[in-house]
Design a protein that fits this description.
The chain has about 290 residues and is α/β, with parallel strands linked by helices. It folds into 2 domains: about 140 residues, Ribonuclease H-like superfamily/Ribonuclease H (Nucleotidyltransferase, domain 5), CATH 3.30.420; about 110 residues, Nuclear Transport Factor 2, Chain: A. It is about 30% helix and about 35% strand. It is built from 8 helices and 11 strands. The strands form 2 sheets. Strands 7-6-11-10-9-8 form a 6-stranded mixed β-sheet. Strand 6 and strand 7 form a beta hairpin. The chain is globular.
């Protein structure tokens, strides 16, 4: 027999009140969270709790997940991180390392297959897990404890500690003074090149304006929906060299930059607008450099 489940996470504010949940059926599900956490921490913890609660079964496990960050972390990146003493290819520490190490231990000896599903697309198990995770985050926002659910039969639920605030730093945490608009926009542009962001459609969606579009270097016009469907980690590292960053209006910044890879360079421009107190990319264009 194979256990088929969905796991999901939620954060209201990201970071903010956060929740996680996994769902098999109405008799087998669990949820939890913290007063302050990130969406990725919720996504990872949902998978970890599912693995730990089903550890004593001899059944295979299929986990439906809408986060490529979670799937790639466990199935692709983790062996390399372990060889580098839990550091990434750029030498920086792996984010959420405590949860990653617990996941590594929980995966030992298990037959687990991950299947990516598009979030909010009507997938029954994913929708159930999403609602439970959002409900847990909303409970913490109200100052209440969420319904932890029945869990897995015979399993003892694990008390989840509040994630360390240093495991997933804010984009601007290394800046001593209040970041300028230019610094914020450049940091956000860099984040769109990071594997952790590009593996998480929810994180990308938060950075793209609802009316976002792009004219790619091939001449293709991309819509926001098309980009969210296809975005993935880059095939090779990209270096962002700022050419110019200047105001384009009271709440708009135009960033021009050079993307440098082993294959060559591309000149790119991004228009960022202030929306809801934060910055979102409204338009992007890339042109091969002569």
């Amino acid at each position: 027999m194979t256990i088929i489940a969905a796991a999901d996470g939620s954060a209201l504010g990201n970071p903010g009140p956060a929740g996680w949940a996994w769902y098999v059926d109405d008799e087998h599900w669990a949820a939890g969270g913290w007063p302050h956490g990130t969406n990725n921490q919720g996504e990872l913890t949902a998978v970890l709790d599912l693995l730990e609660q089903t550890a004593d079964t001899d059944q295979d496990l299929v986990i439906h997940c809408d986060s490529m960050y979670v799937i790639n972390s466990i199935t692709k990146w983790m062996p390399g991180w372990k060889r580098k003493a839990w550091r990434k290819g750029d030498g920086k520490p792996v984010m959420n390392v405590e949860i990653m190490q617990a996941l590594d231990a929980a995966m030992q000896g298990r037959k687990v297959r991950f299947e990516w599903v598009k979030g909010h697309s009507g997938h029954e198990l994913n929708e159930k897990a999403d609602r439970l995770a959002n409900g847990a985050a909303a409970a913490y926002q109200r100052g209440a404890a969420p319904d932890s659910g029945p869990g897995w039969s015979g399993a003892t639920p694990t008390t989840r500690e509040i994630p360390s605030a240093t495991t997933e730093p804010d984009l601007f945490s290394e800046l001593v003074a209040e970041p300028t608009d230019e610094e914020q926009v450049i940091a956000l542009e860099r984040s769109l090149l990071a594997d952790e962001t590009r593996s998480d459609p929810a994180a990308v969606a938060a950075l793209l304006h609802p009316q976002w579009s792009e004219i790619g270097q091939s001449g293709r016009l991309w819509t926001r929906e098309e980009m969210l469907d296809e975005i993935a980690p880059l095939a090779s590292p990209v270096t962002l060299d700022v050419v110019a960053c200047m105001p384009a209006g009271p709440d708009a910044m135009l960033l021009t930059w050079r993307a440098v890879t082993d294959e060559g360079s591309t000149l790119r421009s991004s228009l960022w607008v202030r929306a809801g107190g934060g910055w979102q990319q409204l338009f992007h264009q890339g042109t091969p450099e002569a």
